[in-house]
Amino acid sequence: MLTQTLLGHEPIQQRFTERLQQQKLPHAWMFYGMKGIGKAMLAKQLSQTYLCESLTQSGLPCQQCHACQMVKAGTHPDLEQVGLTWNEKKKQYRRDIRVEQIRQALDFLGLTGMQSERRVLILDDANHMNLAAANAVLKGLEEPSSDTLLLMVCHDISGLPETIRSRCLLEHCSPLEKDDVHQVLQSMALPEQALTLAETLAKGCPGRVQALHDETIVAACLQWQALTQSIQHADLGDIEAWLQKYVKTVPSELIVSILVEPLQQAMQKWSGDYVMIEKIYHAVQTLLTWEHDVRSHALRPVPSLLARILQVRKAWKQAS
Ligand SMILES: [Zn+2]
């Protein structure tokens, strides 16, 4: 959880409350949009809205009642959350949401609420459901129990079967406005030396820079930023050494964002040949897909990133 205050998704909260008060709440909602914009927090706030015993006049959870207290403490017996689970052995999240997780969660939805009549299931990382899990969800969507709510969260809706999408109310969540990002970053209490970097990299998605809480990661990121500021002149030996040391501890998303930021800036200011900029653009795209490619093709992270950096350098040198 980034912060106690949810910023930037007020219209969705408003629509949700209106439908709740008109007793026209759809059984299943799907919140989708970029990573790090607070979609899971939104789902949690809406589940609190659904379970709260006395909403405020503006239709927000009161934060005071027993139900609100329990939702905030993560102990409400009628709220369940499912998502990718942590693999302690491999020190990483598992790749898939498994069918057993979904079946258990749907069984939970089928029971009568303990604290109230209502039950809520938040299904995070919905695009990581394997086929069997997605089919189980579909079955749950076809036979919804009354007084239950399924709130699904995902960043890439295109990976979900159309049969699931068509049975949900789809809500697109937008990146945050600059002022909201600033406020969220302030509330994250990041180390002083991380603030400028965080502001640069967040780009509407403050969750992307959450790892900058850790001072070791901040120091590594600042070093990476200095190394890669000018990719044409960067020392590849230093880059490789840095990657060998930090590729497992610094989140890949930060490694790539720091690398790509000055390139994107330079491309925006580009006044040269159109064909050349297209070459650079394609090379930069390969940096953006690095993490995905490493995971899906089991590539070795350091050599594959180095090769892509070389490609960018080559394109850049040809252009200038
Ligand atoms: Zn309440």
Task: Please explain how this structure is put together.
By secondary structure, the chain is α/β, with parallel strands linked by helices. It has two domains: 10-172, Rossmann fold, CATH 3.40.50.300; 214-319. It has 14 helices and seven strands. Helix 1 runs parallel beside helix 2, helix 2 (39-51) packs antiparallel against helix 3 and helix 4 packs parallel to helix 5. The termini are far apart. The mean pLDDT is 90. Zinc ion is lined by residues 52-54, 61-62, 64-65, 67-68. The site of zinc ion has 9 residues, from helix 3.
Q: Give helix % range.
A: 40-55%
**What is the overall number of helices?**
14
Ligands present: zinc ion
As for the number of domains, it is 2
Return residue spans where pLDDT drops below 50 for at least 5 consecutive residues.
none
| Main pleated sheet | 5 strands, parallel
Number of strands: 7
Q: End-to-end distance, in Å?
A: 45 Å
Strand content: 5-15%
- CATH class designation of the largest domain: Alpha Beta
SSE arrangement, N to C: HEHHEEEHEHEHEHHHHHHHH
Going across the major beta sheet, what is the strand order?
A: 2-5-6-1-7
CATH topology of the largest domain: Rossmann fold
- Tell me the Rg in angstroms: 22 Å
The CATH superfamily label of the largest domain reads P-loop containing nucleotide triphosphate hydrolases
Shape: elongated
Task: Just name the CATH architecture of the largest domain.
Answer: 3-Layer(aba) Sandwich
Mean pLDDT: 90
Task: Determine the structural class based on helices, strands and strand pairing.
Answer: alpha/beta
